[in-house]
Amino acid sequence: MRKRSVKNNLDEMQEQTLLKIESRGMWIPFYGLVLSIVAQVLIGSEQMGNAILGESVLLLILSLYVVISCLRHGIWDRRLRPTPKTNTVVSAVAGAVVGIAMGIRSYFDYHAAVGSVGVFLFCAGFTFALCFAALSVCAKLYEKKQAQLETEDSDTAENGAK
């Protein structure tokens, strides 16, 4: 089936501006969901799991879409490289954020400093390990896709030269 072509009424500058607007329109809710979940964890009640379920599902779907789409197109990040050092730093930051949030939550629930430190260490370590593993797998997939794209580009260049 043939796609209908839709005329683009935007010039290049307007197209770039629209892409920036759309990008902000995605990242503002993304970080808003993250902050909402963290806030609800910190001030939540016994029903915290139910309270953050909707936000968590939406954040998971959005995150998976972005990660899968970027990996399919061989895109990693504008500024960061997919290195073990970068993966370690990003995982440590994620672990610290989750560990601090859960440690504070534990302290408010049980008023036990030693137990809260234990919760912090466990949650931070677990989050670090999961994040590092996920980033390492994604980095390998990215490198594989980049190699595939470079092979396709060189094949296209050789065929064009003939």
Explain how this protein is built.
The protein is mainly α and 162 residues long. The protein has 2 domains: 11-72; 77-162. 81% of the residues lie in helices and 0% in strands. The protein is built from 5 helices and no strands. The longest helix is centred in the C-terminal third of the chain and has 49 residues, at 113-161. It is extended, with a radius of gyration of 21 Å. It starts with 11 loop residues before the first helix and ends with a helix.
How is this fold's topology laid out?
Blueprint: H1 12-43, H2 48-51, H3 53-72, H4 84-110, H5 113-161
Helix pairs in contact: 1-3, 1-4, 4-5
Sheet with the most strands? Answer: none
Number of domains: 2
Summing up helix and strand content along with how strands pair, one would put the structural category as mainly alpha
Radius of gyration: 21 Å
Order of helices and strands: HHHHH
Q: Given the structure, what is the number of helices?
A: 5
Considering DSSP H and I runs of 4 or more, what fraction of the residues is helical?
A: over 70%
The coarse silhouette is: extended
The overall strand count is 0
Strand content: under 5%
Terminal CA distance: 32 Å
